[in-house]
Amino acid sequence: MATHRLLLLRHVASRSAPPLRGHQRRWAQVHDVRFLATHVSKDRILDKYRDKLDRKAAQEGHESIDSLKDAYKDQIANLRKQAAVPGATAPLDANPQSPASSFNQPSPSGPHPTPPTAPPSPSPSSSKTPPGVKTLSSFLDVDKTRTLPPTEIETLWRLRHASNPNSLCATIPRRTYDAIAATARRHPQFILPLPRTPPSGDAGEGAQGKETGEEGAAEIHFLQWTFPTPTTSTVLFTHLAEYKLRGEFSTPHTTVTHHLDLAEEKGLVLLQGSVVDGRGVSVEEGKWLVMCLQKFYGQAAEETPRRRLMEKFSEGDAEGFRVEELLEEAERMG
Q1: 3-state secondary structure the chain
Q2: Could you tell me which of 117, 138, 17 has the C-alpha nearest to residue 67?
Q3: In whole angstroms, what is the distance from residue 87 CA to residue 193 CA?
Q4: Residue 29 in contact with residue 36, Cβ under 8 Å?
Q5: Residue 214 pLDDT class (50, 70, 90 cuts)
Q6: How many CB atoms lie within 10 A of CB 242?
Q7: What is the pLDDT of residue 217?
Q8: Per-residue pLDDT for 37 more than 50?
Q9: So what's the pLDDT on residue 26?
Q10: Beta strands 204-205 and 210-212: pairing type?
Q11: To 5 degrees, how large is the angle CA 71–CA 73–CA 78?
Q12: Is the pLDDT of residue 215 over 90?
């Protein structure tokens, strides 16, 4: 009896009421997935990666994200072409010739067809400039500039950057630069102090990487050299406090690039750089950091406390490297 009751309950439970078709509503909407995948708001994507793009632009010597995109324009177009999917993100007729169709084509006449010639491999001398690196040709007509005397080149170089209020511009004798670059290859990283007016009552080390004392205060900045091409070298300046916090993801506030294209025949190295707005450093302070860099890395610093400080910093000698001594050397230059 119990068994039959159980079977009945199962039978009743399995018979659900018919759906009420007269009151049913259908609210489903169909979306084209391809549209959603390829038409996401560009502004949202740009805002999401703006910090990384700003940092990338500053590291490679660009003044804005638009300038960075122009430098990578050909590479972006090639990547989009490679990633195209016929029928989804590209027209159906954009599909290149398939291996099957090429296989069905008639073979060349003759029993021994000539194999296709492999394209010649590029020579090291014809290697292109890394993407995003601004060479001297981005600012001047190098061939025409070679015909000018050094004094006119200096004037032309300064006029080229006179309209940009955030630019840093200078010319350096080749022998002076060679000494600086040789030291930079041995000591590619260092810190430099930037004098600041201390708030009243402060003493000791500040929270923002500042060293304060009775006579004044200084904000410490981290610098790093890179040599992207044989004719360019770049220096990135970053707040030491930010570099401690974010490491390689920190954003430089000042970027300086040296161009050596005319060094051999004209004896000049052209310096060009920029200071980023809103990063806590003015253009005059950026100029002071560049001057301080040349004083520490130049030939005149050999066999001086400045060079010994750099050696201790590169060796990681925490006990021998004293920030107070660094501040004293900076005060002597000021």
Answers
A1: CHHHHHHHHHHHHHCCCCCCHHHCCCCCCCCCHHHHHHCCCHHHHHHHCHHHHHHHHHHCCCCCHHHHHHHCHHHHHHHHHHCCCECCCECHHHCCCCHHHHHHCCCCCCCCCCCCCCCCCCCHHHCCCCCCCCCHHHCCCHHHHCCCCHHHHHHHHHHHCCCCCCEEEEEEEHHHHHHHHHHHHHCCEEEEEEEECCCCCCCEECCCCEEECCCCEEEEEEEEEEEEECCEEEEEEEEHHHHHHHHHHCCCCEEEEEECCCHHHHCEEEEEEEECCCCCCCHHHHHHHHHHHHHHHCHHHCCCHHHHHHHHHHHCCCCCCCHHHHHHHHHHHC
A2: 138
A3: 59
A4: no
A5: very low
A6: 20
A7: 78
A8: no
A9: 47
A10: antiparallel
A11: 135
A12: no
Question: Degrees (nearest 5) of the Cα angle 176, 181, 182?
Answer: 100
pLDDT for the residue numbered 5: 42
Alpha-carbon gap, residue 202 to 232, rounded angstroms: 42
For residue 14, give both structure tokens.
């399995």
Q: What is the pTM assigned to this prediction?
A: 0.60
Structure tokens at 101: 């169709």
Q: β-strand 268-275 against 167-173: which pairing, if any?
A: antiparallel
Token pair of 70, please? 């122009």
Give Cβ neighbours of residue 110 (< 8 Å, ≥ 6 apart): none
How would you write 313-330 as a 3-class SS string?
HHHCCCCCCCHHHHHHHH
Written as one letter, the residue type at 162 is A
In the block, tokens 């700003």 appear at 54
Residue 259 pairs in a beta bridge with 232, 270
